[in-house]
Amino acid sequence: MPVNPPSPQPRRFPAVLRQRAASFGYAFRGVAAALRSEIHLQFHAVATVLVVGLGFYFHLSPTEWALVALAVGLVWGLELANTAVEAVVNLVSPEYHPLAGRAKDVAAGAVLIGAVAALIVGLLIFGPRVWALIY
Asked: Transmembrane segments in this chain: where (predicted)?
């Protein structure tokens, strides 16, 4: 009598891949929660849409797109980190404490520095093009 080979086991994603996929879900959930609650991040979202639209309108070069993407990513990343710092500080120090205030101020300062850097990138890339449209 012929012996049938054992039936193959159904393929499952290894646990590591499932965990990685879940971590992306948590990250997207965090971005969505911050977008719903943080007015500054909503401002950055509108600015991002405007900048991407201008980039398509002005036919940016790949290098210019890379600089714009880095600037946008920098600001978004710093804003999300600032939001996380504020949430943790509020959790561990509900009452005012000078160190809690300093932590929040420093995190906000990081966002400010990143936003100014992104503004400079935007002015260097879009400024001459917008200027040429106006004059």
From this structure: 39-59, 65-85, 106-126
Domain architecture of the chain: domains with CATH:
39-134 (1.10.287.3610)
Q: Any idea which residue has 């880095």 for tokens? A: 70
72 neighbors 105 (Cβ within 8 angstroms): no
Catalytic positions: 79
Instruction: Judge whether 93 and 100 are in contact, CB under 8 Å.
Output: yes
Burial class (CB in 10 A: 0-12, 13-18, 19+), 58: middle
Residues 6+ apart with CB under 8 A from 111: 40, 75, 78, 79, 82
40 is in an annotated binding site: no
Is 97 annotated as belonging to a binding site? yes
Nearest Cα neighbor of 32 from 71, 24, 85 is 24
Is residue 44 part of an annotated ligand binding site?
no
Residue carrying the six token digits 């393929």: 11
- Tokens found for residue 47: 């600015």
